[in-house]
Input
Amino acid sequence: MTHLVIAPIIIPLFAGALMMLLGERRRVLQTALGLAATAALVVVAAMLLLRADGASAAEVQLYRLGNWPSSFGIVLVLDRLSALMLVLASVLGLAAHVFALARWDRAGAHFHPLFQFQLMGLNGAFLAGDLFNLFVFFEVMLAASYGLALHGSGTARVRAGLHYIAINLAASLVFLVGVSVIYGVAGTLNMADLAARMHDIAAEDRALLETGCAILGVAFLIKAAMWPVGFWLPGTYGAASAPAAAILSLLSKVGIYAVLRLWLLLFGDEAGASSGFGGTWLMLGGLATIAFGSLAVLATQNMARLAGACVIVSSGTLLAALGAGQVAVTGGALFYMTSSVLAIAALFLLIELIERGREVGADVLAVTREAFGEGAEEEYLDDDEEIGVAIPAIMALLGLGFMACALLLAGLPPLSGFLAKFAILAPLIGTGADGLPATTWAVLAALILSGLACLIAMTRVGMDAFWAAPGPPPRVAMAEILPVAGLLALCLGLTLMAGPVMRYMHDTAAGLHAPAGYVGGVMRP
Amino acid sequence: MSDSLLLLSLVALPFLGALAASLLATHARNAAAYLAGGVALAGLALVWTAYPTISQGGVLRAEFAWVPQLGLNFVLRMDGLAWLFAGMVTGIGALVVVYARYYMSTEDPVPRFFAFLLAFMGAMCGLVLSGNLIQLAFFWEMTSLFSFLLIGYWHHTQAARDGARIALTVTATGGLCLFAGLLLIGHIVGSHDLDVVLASGDAIRNHPLYLPALVLVLLGALTKSAQFPFHFWLPHAMAAPTPVSAYLHSATLVKVGLFLMVRLWPVMAGTDAWFWIVGTAGLITLLVGAYVAIFQHDLKGLLAYSTISHLGLITLLLGLNSHLALVAAIFHILNHATFKASLFMAAGIIDHESGTRDIRRLSGLNRTMPFTGRLALVAAAAMAGVPLLNGFISKEMFFEEALSADGLLVLPLVAMLASAFSVTYSLRFIHGTFFGPDPQDLPRQPHEPPAWMRFPVEILVLGCIFVGVLPAATVGPFLDLAARSVLGEATPYYSLAVWHGVNLPLVMSMIALGGGVVLYMALQKHLRSGIEGPPLIRRLEGRRIFERALVFLSWRLARRLEGVLGTRRLQQQLRMVLLLALAAGGFAAWHRGVGPGNLVPQGVDPVIALVWVVGAACALGAAWQAKFHRFAAIMLLGGAGLVVCITFVWFSAPDLALTQLLVEVVTTVLLVLGLRWLPKRMDKPGATGVEVVTISRRLRDLAIAIAAGLGMAALAFAVMTRTPPDLLAQHFLARAYTEGGGTNVVNVILVDFRAFDTLGEIFVLGAVALTVFALLRRFRPAPESVEVPEQQRDQSARDAERPDRRDGDTVADWLLVPSVLTRLLFPVICILAVHLLLRGHDQPGGGFAAGLVASIAIILQYMIGGAAWTEEKLRVLPLRWMGTGLLLAGGVGLASLFFGMPFLTTYFAYADLPWIGRVPTASALLFDIGVFALVVGATVLMLIALAHQSVRGHRAERRAETAPRALVPGED
Output
């Protein structure tokens, strides 16, 4: 079963290719194939997760493509982090896919193959052990995401989608420049090999290598939507169709993943003079991103854009936490990432259902009502107002879901958002007889205030949608409510099973912070 | 029953009950009420079960592993204080359930109501039983959440929505502060476990972080307990159904802040900071709350402000840093819960039976509701501190503490004043409602409520009397338990008795009673005038200030800042990308300084330099013309591409050159075909003078562009003047033939060493083609592009002028010579493609190049023959090609799995073919064929998408002439 490692790539690969042969007319067959593929991915990812977890902390699973040695062939590497990301991608994939089957897959051409390619790109990026291969899977992922972002057409979508394409082409260019410089200086593309060479790079070459890494980092940070290169995100995600937005929300985490993987690998303790390179900037960038994201959360009236702004906040939180460079904080950040990825995807799916029943632009009024409605004094209720209004079951479900998302994103209990913030903050604050350094204060303030911003904005929007001016209950298919419920149930599971989950995250973080295991595992003859 | 089971069920039962209630039918009011009541009573029974242990001074404790890595375990811990609170939460909860059953309208969907109520009860139990600070914060926010849902229960009214939103915003913000504060305590103590924290009082008080931690924790406690200046949310929360008010604002939600202060009192109190913050907040709240309460016309409003005032009293007691004051505080918490819950219920009964809560409209209800009137009278008297009732005793203790607080005369004076105010508003409540003439035109004819609705009030009022008359015998032991659990050995001696002899506190009580009555009589005229709001501070409304601030901060300011710090314009975003890349690269290079390379650059050859001058000119020209002359720009771009191609040839990279050339050709053609549908942009020279702003902006962009270009050049130079000791390429060169079986290293890399990259890239191409197709199928051109292009119009106009030609003749004319040539060339080009494909492994060529060549052949036919003609003769089904190609390439990779080798392992051998002889065959060739098919399919799909745009355009013109035909598979 050594070949299981490549299954997350080749399952969607063959599914997508077959779908193209089948053509769009055999819709039932296409749908069945797609469902089978996404479901199989979940199973495979779960198996890989168990396998990665079963290994000792330093061990990694290596898959040599074409049976060439790691020194010059392409390798796939599975460690706990990759396995975690694979599980996230497959779970999101299944949820979005099921959701799309209710209506969205018919909103434009070739949804199914593009969706499979999207999953293939994501999975490939998480498994890649080679910088250029990482680039290739970034491109697969992006090419498919262009299609998904534009899926369903319409002026707003095309405008936002074309912006997205332009920015990402620029980012890809930056990526290539970075990779070329790194290759030109270090002579290898294999990430583990690169990490091994890091220590002995000649003094006159080190600056150039770091330049390449910095430029490469910019490419990842564009994907992660760090301030000031993340303005594309709310517009694109907000305009994309719901299932596309749900899966796109993971794409920004791919940027985070790449930073996490490469930064800890290349600039860990064993990197000689380059150790810790850029950590301060990650932290600062993360803080700025949280600040901007919080402002964007508050300043937006449109629900989908609001969710997009939440993605920015979540990216910023992760960057700031990673920048701290502490094992336990990284572990907490991984927990946070898992929780926020699930929550944001659920939110994107949910928003479409909520908006479906409402008139266009209804939420634009939410803030204005709050701002100018303060004069309305209703001290006494009429008698008939003292009777509660029954909420239709579907609205109650949607409302409950929205509330759960709000709690998750604001970091309030009882769902995993609260624990996630605690998992970052508790080790960061640590214990001691002295005060706290300024950066810790900043992160503490940023996390608390961004949670507050989310809470205020989401209460505003949610109260308007469900309490003040509820539209007629939307027609919602079972296939649409189930994925949302499933994602939120996973968040509840994260809370209840926090112990084992956190243990996994801490093991992951420990492996990432001790790259010798990874390097040794990949470069073994 | 084991401790852990007891504690766990105390917390879990309400939540399970809530879940069950939410599943009930919309109007199952009896079932929901029985469920809720049963759960509350069961909770009370559980609390009582714990009494034997607690009364021995024991502590029940249950620990469940939750997140051990973070030192966070789920710890339930019941000591005297927690026991008392748990009893209050479940006991008053049960009474409220009974009350609510009769209060809520029959049409009300009450299962939802009871579900929220039970969930809130569960959160409260969890909070008071928390044995871990983080867990406490966890339940703390949950109480905020469920109180939000309860306050907003009648969400169809504006008042309920506003009340709920304000309550949530204030208390949840406080909760977040509390969370931060508790984290700081964790930093100081090294643990979040309550037992550990309670044992580290000195460490906390002496730590440099004590003050920030204190402020943050108190922000949480004071917001929750509605202390000045955060008190304003409480009156607005009165929009909730009365049972909710009776529950939340007497015994539970608002007491949580006090509970926390009592809980942490041993470790955080005792400092000046504590005294000043807590004491001041309590003092102001006590006075202001009582003052404002006098002037409320709404019964619930009056009770709300009186609640604020009493909470202030308790807070003040806690702030005094005295052990006796702490005992008094706990005692008053208990007393306030009983009389305030009963008063809220009484107010609800009045509202329910008479239809209004406005004191100005109510009067003389004593005649129609005598029994309720008496109950309310007793409860209000307890609130006013009349002797022989529970409120009196704790108030006496308060006076005594106020007197003994060192040297501050202001305390006893304020205490007395506030006490007088409380007498006044209590009088107003009773006198205004139950006495005086018969009421005029009330919405309903008042009468006594159902007996069961009055029952909870009776129980509570009985409690007030019993405690008031026999304090030591009734409440004494319980109070002692709670006080001891907080203070331990330090618990002072105190005496609970009605009569302590004539002393100063008694005198103060009498003065306050008399003063209150006098004040009430003096204010009669003012109150009857019906003016809203209290005199002097009418305009200082906390809520309005809060709303203004919130709208400003969370909306206007945020919007402005977002506009300043962000942008939605693509140009600026791209600029930021470029600048950030420049800054990052530049900083990294400058930071350490790039040393010289280990290679010596060769001299510049004038020929290639000249070629590059041409290329650079083309690139500059393309940028120059991009805005208004797109066609020219594309041509110039092609020129630059050709120069790159020549450069590859010059440096002996024929594979790259070939591929570059083909890519240039195909992309240029496709771009030009797409150009037709872009709306024209006209340069209007001289229409507007070039402004200074525009010039400076362009200069800035020019500077950025130059910087980026120079940076890129410097980077390239630096990289190319060095070679690392161990370069990947050396492996490829060494093994291409021996292990890959091909002499064309580039091709071996593409289809063997790094075939996985190639596989990925063909999927990129496939995805892009699908995207282009999907986008263009829905594409509706801009209005100005719909018309026939200018050139065609010209030609048609010429046709119209000449009598021998009909309209459209010129446009329809064949390009005879080119079309013959292209048709002749078609098989030739195809053979060339196959040739390139087959020889790829050893000589320049390969699947990608071959695919491009083949698609050029097809593009030529489309260009010259037109879409309709070509498709009649040559059906290319691009999706089939693409699918086949991808499957083939993937399948080759998969095949190696059956031989037990990893994905994409190649097989290489010589095959003996008849006539041809020994031919080197590698499985890589099959892979290459897959690449070929995909490239052909993808290119043709994009071509067709563009071509059919024109076909559709024409079709729209002559819709009737020809029936549309499905031209693309999957397209109808």
